[in-house]
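Lecture notes, unit on protein representations.

Consider one protein chain, 256 amino acids long.
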Amino acid sequence: MKDAEGADAGASAELTGRFATEVDWTKVVDPYVPGPDGQYGPDLLERLWSPDLRTADDAHAALHFACCGDGGSVRLAAPEVLPFLVEAVRDPAVAVMMRKQILETLAVLARAGNDARTAPAAWPAAWERAVDALLPLLADDEEGDEGVRAGVAAVLARATHRADELIGRFLARFEDEPHLSAAEQLVLAVGELAPHAVERREDAVVWLRQRTTDAGKGEEPDMDDDIDAWLAWMEQHGHDVRTAAVVALRRALRPL
């Protein structure tokens, strides 16, 4: 079973070499299988790049549990493989469906990292590098997928220590985002970050209030009645995100 948008070749030789040399595989284990049977190796990441979706999906599931167990912790494996999970999200060679699933795991890890009383010492620096590496995908219009961009926004919404910077980026990106699903996630992300912002909190709240009453570019004109009006409407990016904005505004106004 293959995804037409995934590559056929899998991971490059350079990348597979890095899997072996840059990951401490003694820390990447199945938390539910003790002993040698629960130990993983570089082939686990290789399978994540597989053009066979079932193989890639199984590898992702194993990586998810190795990194965060049931979702409530950041395990020793997380800082080790996080750079390559981000690499997979950034790589068009990985099937879009898999990139979205990996982003869901990154969001779980980020939330656990924020909430956990303890995390591996290497986690904060690894998470910081991951945020920087994911930021360019917000504006990946040409080869990007709106679902991937939405997933990236959801992950970055967990980078609460950079709330002011990210709110500015999300507001700017919203103006250029061509797809509704990604635009809605940007709005929700602003709501998540606003309570943590220092300089941009008020700006974020005002902006969200405006979105709650803004119908965007309005109803689609009938193409048969006025082709010019329809073409002009199609070229606009104004989205009706009122429902998402109401949810986001509630989050923005909640006390920490």
